[in-house]
Amino acid sequence: MTTAEWLDIGWVDQIPVRGSRTVQVEGGDDIAVFRTAEGKVFALLDRCPHKHGRLSQGIVHGGAVACPLHNWRISLSTGEALGEDKGCTPTVPVKIDGGRVLICRASTLKAAA
Amino acid sequence: MEHCPLKPEGDTRDHLVVIGNGMAGCRAVEELLARDPARYRVTIFGAEPRVNYNRIMLSPVLAGEKCFDDIVINDADWYAANGIALVAGDPVVAIDRAAKTVTTRGGVTEGYDRLLIATGSDPFIIPVPGKDLPGVIAFRDMDDVDTMLAAADAGGDAVVIGGGLLGLEAAHGLSLRGMKVTVIHLMPTLMERQLDEAAGWLLKQALEGRGQTILTGADTAEIVGNGKVEGVKLKDGTLIPASLVVMAVGIRPSVALARDAGLAVGRGIQVDDHMVTSDPAVLAVGECVEHDGQVYGLVAPLWDMCRSLADGLVEQPTGYRGSVTSTKLKVSGIDVFSAGDFSGGDGCEDIVLRDASRGVYKRVIVRDDRIVGAVLYGDTADGNWYFDLLKKQEDVSQLRDLLIFGQAFAAGGGAADPKAAVAALSDDAEICGCNGVTKGQVVSCIVKGARSLDAVRGTCKASASCGSCTGVVENLLALTLGDDVQSGPKTMCKCTSFGHDDVRREIVAQAMRSIPEVMQKLHWTTPDGCSSCRPALNYYLLCALPGDYVDDQQSRFVNERMHANIQKDGTYSVVPRMWGGLTNPTELRAIADVVEKFNAPMVKVTGGQRLDIFGIKKEDLPAVWADLNAAGMVSGHAYGKSLRTVKTCVGSEWCRFGTQDSTGLGVKVERMSWGSWMPHKFKIAVSGCPRNCAEATIKDFGIVCVDSGYELHVGGNGGIHVRATDLLCKVATEQEAMDTCAAFIQLYREEGRYLERTAPWIERVGVEYVKRRIVDDAAGREALRARFLYSQSFSQDDPWAQRADGAEAEHHAPMARFIPQERAFLEEMGA
Fold it and tell me: By its UniProt entry, which InterPro entries does this protein fall under (chain A) (predicted)?
């Protein structure tokens, strides 16, 4: 449940495996919430460090997502661009509690500001 | 069988009496004779009226591959030469341990000093009504075989109950003898105690291919018949006619004699490590015994037991420590081997090799660097080697990389270094099992100029099929050429060593059905691929399995997942289909309404004669589509690796130069080909005369109308590298133009690599190749066309309508909405 520190955004099952959903943050960028094939959940600002592509629309593979605009690969755990590319997307801490996905309130506010 | 004299005059040696003239009893005597031939006077009692024969070879006798004389182990001369008295056909019915005598059914009583019980096992007869009807038999001895042969002579239907080793061998024999055989097996997989599911499935396919009916998960209710067997009724009510029923559901240690004599009996006659029962004067060996809680129904443990028994009899005890067993199915042409534990589980690693073209499945199970089990199907040559490693508990960590390829590779010297292992192979060692290519042939083809993996695959075919020997071939290249090796074929991506063509061929050859299956079978190096290979695999499977394959949305690029084109600001553009570039007031009004209703900032006419509505938000897409659908418009697929548009000029209906109805033909072609997924986007144009206003000669497929018919052009591209089309052919009628178009699209769909437009594809394969396939080969053209139309029957379903109806709403709606200003109000979105 939502607390002073965590925002309860829904069930893990609502995020497709190897896919993503977004959390709209009024007045800021969306947060993209990813679920990998292994079942891990990550959250990043939904904005590629390159040309601000919507990472939530990319292909999730392993622990990375490929940006739909120019195929930059972004690490889901660190937000860092992988390979030759340089850049970083802010990450948002996530925890799973009883099948619910909770994202860090402070990071969400900061990332979306 | 005549009786030999039981007690020669003046023989004062200890008397060893053996109950059981089967494999265990006689083997024990042989082992004893090998150690000390004079020590005991030996008498053997056998229930069957014949000399000692190899029971496990009854299956080949039934199958007609051997006769009884071929499977005799010890003939009458052997008994005579070794002074062994044989009482055959008169079974022992009682043991008197106090008096140390045995008594036969015929009333013969014989004293013993040591007694060896080797009564083997009895077939288990399931207690169903009708089990005693004439024509219901087991498969245990030569009499059973004779009964089956007599039944087979009369022909008709046979039912074998039990799909284990023995049952399948009986079914095979009866089938070869001309009977129509049905196997009824209680479990879901054949030979489930010896095979895993994959191998069991392959076996079932093979047996069904030979005409047997295999019913798994089938439970026998009763055997029906009036005075003799007439059929088998299953619990689900199915009645299977049969003039012969063979029960082969299992065996039970034959312990009645021992139990009556008061010996300790559990599941079998309990023995110690020296095969001594609870009575020191009485020994037991073979399938009738229980050692250390284990009962065995296979032949190999028996050899080990007999050795320990004989060591004990000559007072040089060694001790039996139990056996690990292995199994081979004796059905000619079907090679199956299994050993040890293949149930997997924690800490177990599976090493799997599948070779669909040879029908081979190999699985070796390793735990803590030791082999704990092996299942081999189709190629069992290395069964004994794996079994040996298993029994010896050898550390296989040094062999691991090559283990699955078998002894020839893995034990070829210098095992730690695959290159050295390859170097150590002999010239006639087979490298590529699929194509039967030896090391010598590969090396000679490299020496003759094949300097890359691709070149080797192209010349001698090594590693061109399943690819499992790719590493070995690469090592041969390195060994033969040193640094001169040319880099291999361009692989699909970093996740695989295969190129696009290899992957596609294997998908078809191995009838693969899903992305994980492809990754598994082709040894993908990443768990779930990457953004390059996943969309390609998704397309290849979709193309190979029209109507059957379930599209993986997470392996689609965003535009195909969202059915719209993502723009740099994250909004989408929407292009409704306008057939042949024609539109009408209703469509135009609907588009205008959508633009206003959703505040689309821009509308533009596209290069392909369509209207593109820009700036639509992800959440609004389903509503936009609903409105466009309502006006009769469907997805224009402006976003897909698929048919984009068919561009037309006005043609003979209006134009003073027009020679044919180019707009009408354009509409027909677009109706035929819309919705089909392709390796890349595909554009078509139809021009009404050679002035070519529709620019048909820079399209993937271009039709230029002339007075006498239609010129068909292919492989054009107006992109970065402008390429004018090649003329494919000229045809006389609209129908021929449409048919050729369909065939061309299908050829491209089947052979073009993912993300390869028709222009580079044709540059790669040559327009002459395309002409041969499409123009010269009329039957081939027709087959391609038919495959395209079949595939189209599943793809012309408007994705917009599905989404507008609420399908996959999660693609469009956010999961939650967070409004910081109002003290962190959080709204869940449902979906």
Answer: Rieske-like_NirD (IPR012748), Rieske_2Fe-2S (IPR017941), Rieske_2Fe-2S_sf (IPR036922)
